[in-house]
Amino acid sequence: MLTNWLKIALINYKKNRLSTFINLFGLTIGLTGFMLILMHWNDEESYEKWNPKKDQIFAFQSLYKKDNFYGNNISYPLAYEAFKKISETEDYVIFNGSDIGLKMRTKYTTAFQQGGFTSSENFFNFFPFKIISGRAKDALKSDASIAISRQAAMKLFGTVNAAGESIKIDDKDYMVTAVYELPEGNSQIKPEFIFKPAEQFKNDKEEWNNFNYGCFFMLKKGADPSVFENKFKEILEHRAARSAKKAGMSAQQFFEMYGPNRVFLVPLDQLKLHAKASWFGNGDFRTIMILFSLSVLIVILSAINFINLKTAEASQRGKEVGVRKAIGGTKLSLMLQFFLETFIICLLSYFLSLALTELLLPSFNKFFNKEIVLNDWHVYMYSLAMVMAVTLLSGLVPAFYLSNFKAIETLKGNFSRSKHGVWFRNGILTLQLVISSFFIIGGLIVHSQVKHMMNKDLGFNGKQIMMIYCNELTPKSWLKYERLKNELSKINGVEAVSYGEAVAGSGRRSSSNIDYEHQSIDAETGSMDYNYLQFLDVKLLKGRWLDPNLASDTMNTIIVNEAFVKKFGWTDEQAFQRELHPGFDEGKKYKIVGIVKDFNLRSLKFKIEPIMFFHYKQSPWKRFNVYNIQVKIKPDDIEGTVARVKKFWQTSAEPGYPFDYYFINQRFAKTFEDYQKQQTLLTILNAMVLMVALLGLFALSSLMIEQKLKDVAIRKTLGASDYVLVFGLTSQFLWIAVIAVLISIPICYFLMNEWLKDFAYRIDMPVWPFVVSFLVLLGLTFAVVSIKAYKATKVDLIKYLKYE
């Protein structure tokens, strides 16, 4: 019996070559997209899975209710108090530096080593890396201890057995206490070296309001994180009570004004993709879910094609069903036969999609900057489950439909003239075109939003400005900057030199509370040289620039942006009359002397935040942290000037250190990359959807028009023109396309409006994508169906009328 079923299946595959190809093609494309996005999702979810203690480790995260802002920083005393007073806590580790680069000298070599990490001494209790040399216990206890990775040990000493060796960093000797192997699994925490900044820890031990650290807490086995979160509120209230007296307000006022007001613990293995804020950067879970949903839609679209084509072929198999029922075939056996035919196609598509996925994986990895390989059993299992779901969806409906034919009707040949199933086919064809319309509208709106962001006036000019990092931070970094500024200014091709802490597109951010009477806002703090804002071509709206001839401009004067003034709710005139108290410089009053037009420092996804600019000499905290030099280059010989600046840097400024620089406008452009990738992916998915949908539409229209060839012959004999015949054959499909677009419009409007809400600078919902979708879908439907309709008008009249 099975052999007979297979023979019948092969005959039908061969007889309906076009629909067989379309079903195979559509399902293969859909399953390939599903697998690729699934692998991307699995890869993002796999971070920190290697850690055997991951179920006990949680990242600290806080909520500031006043601004609805999530933070990831904590102060040293808050972390220590939580460890001491919350019984659910087993251990904690704090850190305040990641991806640090330092020049290291050993008796063997001198090298610049990147990827450093500063941490408290119990780092290895949280991240149990395999120790190759030395020991993890007490590896970071001393402030002169350093642990290094295998790669760093080979680079610095030429061997992994480096425990006990000495490394000199900035004239301080460190002893290597451990050499470790970095984990093979995905991890955001892969330091090349680790040491403890003991002096900084000592200075911050009583600084309750200096939120300079990230923190992981390890809870006891079986402890409930929500219990920890609730108990931590008492510690926050204790901190508010301590600080309120100094601020001259009640503890409740301090708590509400400054926060944080609530804390959350994020499981270590969810930090990458699900944290609201993370020290190590967040993944984009929402985008992954959008892409995954779209890939599932493509598979569904392929399944719809399958159902449509199989039910449309019903008239060709009506007599087969009638004969089999007449000789004793049961409904169940017929259903199993038709179900087997579907399963063979789906299984073949599955194997083809595996091959296509392997073929596309290198390009996919390059696009997402990943190293995914097709060896995860989850991908095989989930994609096979999707195949089974498609088999059930695509096979069960046609099988049930075909097995229900009545033997007498089909043997009389009445089925071809029956309207049985027309409504069903039209319904699922409408669903297919609704999905196609959604992709067209969504793609056009995404394109418009990305174009809007690319063309937006950023409020500054970063062209031809090199941002050079100072790798060697001296105890008096501002003096180093002033010396290098004079020497760089003499290089041929250099137009101007300046310094600014807040650099567009860098992602580096320093902020503080800024107080006025009983008002307080969180604002970014940007120390700078006198000419920095003019250097960037930022527009001054009111007041004046900083003046090197005024002593007060290195003591207590600031320039703010429009967002700063609006956040306080002042007019420009009121702003110039206020004296402010910044949290980073307690006891000192600052006065606003200028207001500049808002300009973007971060991605255009975010609103422009309040920011205050002041001279770096104004605050010791800023003066000792001048970390970059920015050089504006004349446009006539950019390459030559860059080469001269590089030579000066490597021979005179920082010999032995890498020349670490970028152009500001190019770095800011990278903030658009994620959205450009979304645009590219949606364009590819659009092409896939339209291809699958139109091929399915062509095959379905071919089958349905073939059923009407006798009607065409009769009407042509009665004098109907080709135009009338083509329009008559295509009108049904055109009406379906119209209905599909009308259904898709409210769905698209709602979903795309939700997507646009993520952007601070967004387009208003445009009308033209909906109009374009209507015209494109209508045009493509007519073009595809009319090809077959026109061929039908050339029908051989004698062939279809000789028996009438």
From TrEMBL:
<feature type="transmembrane region" description="Helical">
    <location>
        <begin position="377"/>
        <end position="402"/>
    </location>
</feature>
<dbReference type="Pfam" id="PF12704">
    <property type="entry name" value="MacB_PCD"/>
</dbReference>
<feature type="transmembrane region" description="Helical">
    <location>
        <begin position="724"/>
        <end position="752"/>
    </location>
</feature>
<feature type="transmembrane region" description="Helical">
    <location>
        <begin position="21"/>
        <end position="41"/>
    </location>
</feature>
<feature type="domain" description="MacB-like periplasmic core">
    <location>
        <begin position="20"/>
        <end position="233"/>
    </location>
</feature>
<dbReference type="InterPro" id="IPR003838">
    <property type="entry name" value="ABC3_permease_C"/>
</dbReference>
<keyword id="KW-1133">Transmembrane helix</keyword>
<keyword id="KW-0472">Membrane</keyword>
<feature type="transmembrane region" description="Helical">
    <location>
        <begin position="681"/>
        <end position="703"/>
    </location>
</feature>
<feature type="domain" description="ABC3 transporter permease C-terminal">
    <location>
        <begin position="293"/>
        <end position="404"/>
    </location>
</feature>
<keyword id="KW-0812">Transmembrane</keyword>
<feature type="transmembrane region" description="Helical">
    <location>
        <begin position="288"/>
        <end position="309"/>
    </location>
</feature>
<protein>
    <submittedName>
        <fullName>ABC transporter permease</fullName>
    </submittedName>
</protein>
<dbReference type="InterPro" id="IPR050250">
    <property type="entry name" value="Macrolide_Exporter_MacB"/>
</dbReference>
<feature type="domain" description="ABC3 transporter permease C-terminal">
    <location>
        <begin position="685"/>
        <end position="795"/>
    </location>
</feature>
<feature type="transmembrane region" description="Helical">
    <location>
        <begin position="334"/>
        <end position="357"/>
    </location>
</feature>
<feature type="transmembrane region" description="Helical">
    <location>
        <begin position="423"/>
        <end position="446"/>
    </location>
</feature>
<keyword id="KW-1003">Cell membrane</keyword>
<feature type="transmembrane region" description="Helical">
    <location>
        <begin position="767"/>
        <end position="790"/>
    </location>
</feature>
<feature type="domain" description="MacB-like periplasmic core">
    <location>
        <begin position="433"/>
        <end position="646"/>
    </location>
</feature>
<dbReference type="InterPro" id="IPR025857">
    <property type="entry name" value="MacB_PCD"/>
</dbReference>
<dbReference type="Pfam" id="PF02687">
    <property type="entry name" value="FtsX"/>
</dbReference>
